[in-house]
Amino acid sequence: MDRGSVLLAFGNSAILLLSGKPWGVTSAFALWGAKLAQLIGIPVTHWGYWQTKANAAALHAPLSHDVTTVMDVGIVIGSLLAAGLAGQFPKRYFHAIPFKMWIGVLVTAS
User: What are the counts of helices (DSSP H) followed by strands (DSSP E) for the chain?
Assistant: First the structure.
């Protein structure tokens, strides 16, 4: 059996035990989009998806309280750290990325 798959299985089990829901990454995207929509004045609280108790609570809480958001940020930071420690992320790549793209990444990530 592959060690990586065993590690992923244990990681998923730990996430399920600690957060009460299985490993997922996409529900945070809906939350980020809804929070951004609220910032520009779109009343998303009237939408059916945000009417459920859990989703409404997530919408009104800070992003740092959302388990999926914290996992997504952790995955990105962990991936960057792993690539950096493996020497697979040279600094020259930062200079090759246009400034407008950095702005897009920062706006999308927040």
Answer: 6, 0
